[in-house]
Write a structure and sequence with these properties.
The chain is 45% helix and 12% strand. The chain contains 20 helices and 12 strands. Strands 2, 3, 4, 7, 9, 10, 11 and 12 form an 8-stranded mixed sheet that branches. A two-stranded antiparallel ribbon has the order 1-8. α11 (298-308) crosses α18 and α12 packs across α13. The longest helix is centred in the middle third of the chain and has 26 residues, at 235-260. The termini are far apart.
């Protein structure tokens, strides 16, 4: 019998679960299935090193974070490291110490393991931020609120490393944890909320009587077996359990109120309902109710976290040189009479020759001429890149789009990602469109990466946008890669 099964069979055990999941767990406990045998603990502990070496396959078996959209992942103690961000998974039914799920054949970390992973990430000098991926209906109370308090006490707003969360399912106990994060993202159809407490009681006395079984307890005091499943629940026992539920719910509401900045009355008014993260009816929308901050994909949320970091390094030399090489290749083709390369350079707003770029940079700005009009016509013919597009052209199109206006800093970082195939044009545009103008994210990026979006008065000199950043960076290093 696992710790989870034992907890579910314990009378009066307090659960922070959506009602449907709580009932499903009770049904599972009552089925009395036998777990398959096997020395899983030895394999699990011995597999920590292998998880780092073998990557995704072993990570899946050990329930380590698997990030399919990342090109480079390093596995550490309880978290995956991607671009200086520690990714920690919160999944399955939450328990104090975790358990091995025989049906999923995976270890489900508990509050203790999640806390250890977060502590390790905070102490890792390579980690600049923490990204929680939440996919859980909730779980047991023991340890939940202490961990939620710890997350809030050491998040970015409290002077620690920024902690963001992405919710697939974040209900009850699994919402308490991300409530302490600096920011919560979710998909429109994600489940969030269910801020409430439940104690379930199964009265099996009628079934036992039908089977001819009678349970008799020799107890030291009349309330020792209150809540036992083999006898009906008395009014005294019910009142006692209700008082326990109310007390735990009081702390739950306080934890969420402090983490999310919501009033306790507003949280109680939800009456422990769960909500879609986004709904047309604001009374049924997690976004409108303040349970989440942004709607978007997991990949977009991660990109936004990267973009918000004030210590985000400049693009790597490899990316910069790749952009430079692409531009040089297009210019070479154009000088050889390739009409397609010439049209692409015009569409990107890049002079056909480097010499022409220098000449234009030294001159004064003039009104649009017939060539400019031709460029505009070709832009219209080329149209917007496909949603799946990546590469230099798509990156330039992003930073020059209407959606980038007022969001230049974010557009610049997203443009770099698109140019280096770190994300698609469609994903970047979706995130850019969802970001408010002059938002906290934009403020965090203010004053950095000047000229990237071509918004400065000098943007036309020596090229513009990403190309200007490449030129400056290349010149800084003497045209040599590191």
């Amino acid at each position: 019998m696992t710790d989870l099964d034992l907890a579910l069979r314990t009378p009066g055990r307090i659960l922070l679960l959506k009602r449907g999941e709580a009932q499903a767990l009770l049904d599972r406990a009552l089925e009395g299935r036998q777990a398959r045998s096997g020395n899983w603990l030895t394999n699990l502990m011995g597999g920590r090193k292998a998880a780092r070496e073998d990557g995704e396959a072993v990570a899946e078996a050990l329930a380590m974070p698997v990030i399919r959209w990342a090109s480079a992942v390093e596995y550490c103690d309880g978290y995956a490291l991607v671009d200086g961000v520690a990714i920690v998974d919160i999944s399955g039914v939450m328990t104090p110490e975790g358990y091995y799920d025989w049906w999923a054949e995976a270890w489900v970390p508990g509050y203790a393991q999640i806390g250890e992973a977060l502590a390790a990430a905070r102490g890792d000098g390579r980690v600049r931020a923490i990204f929680l991926r939440v996919n859980s209906p909730g779980g047991l109370v023991d340890g939940c609120f202490d961990l939620a308090d710890a997350i809030r006490a050491e998040n970015g707003a409290s002077g620690g490393k920024p902690v963001w969360a992405y919710a697939k399912v974040a209900c009850s106990a699994a919402y308490a944890l991300p409530s302490g994060c600096d920011r919560i993202w979710a998909a429109s159809e994600s489940d969030v909320g269910s801020i409430g407490v439940v104690i379930t009681h199964v009265d099996s006395s009628a079934m036992l009587a039908e089977w001819g079984l009678k349970v008799e307890a020799i107890e030291s005091a009349p309330h020792k077996t209150d809540g036992a499943s083999w006898k009906p629940l008395t009014e005294d026992a019910r009142a006692h359990l209700q008082a326990v539920v109310d007390q735990v719910a009081k702390r739950f509401v306080s934890v969420v109120s402090q983490g999310r900045g919501m009033s306790e009355d507003a949280i109680r008014a939800q009456e422990a309902r769960w909500y879609l993260a986004q709904h047309d009816d604001p009374n049924l929308s997690g976004l409108a109710l303040g349970l989440v901050d942004e709607i978007g994909s997991e990949r977009a949320a991660f990109a936004a976290l990267l973009a918000s970091l004030t210590d985000t390094p400049e693009p790597t030399m490899e990316i910069e040189m790749a952009l430079k090489d692409q531009v040089a290749a297009l210019r070479a083709k154009a000088s050889a009479g390739d009409a397609g390369a010439t049209a692409e350079l015009k569409a990107l707003g890049i002079p056909v020759s480097a010499e022409k770029a220098d000449d234009e940079g030294d001159g004064d700005e003039t009104e649009s001429n017939s060539d400019d009009a031709d460029d505009e016509d070709e832009d219209e013919e080329d149209g917007e890149p496909k949603a799946s597009a990546t590469g230099t052209k798509a990156g330039f199109a992003l930073v020059g789009s209407k959606a980038a206006k007022g969001r230049e800093a974010l557009a610049a970082k997203l443009g770099e990602k698109v140019a280096s195939a770190g994300m698609t044009y469609g994903e970047a545009m979706g995130m850019l469109g969802a970001a408010p103008k002059a938002s906290n994210l934009s403020a965090a990026m203010a004053g950095r990466d000047r000229n990237i979006g071509g918004s400065d008065a000098n943007a036309e000199k020596s090229g513009s946008g990403l190309l200007a950043a490449v030129d400056r960076r290349t010149a800084k290093h003497g045209g040599k890669s590191k």
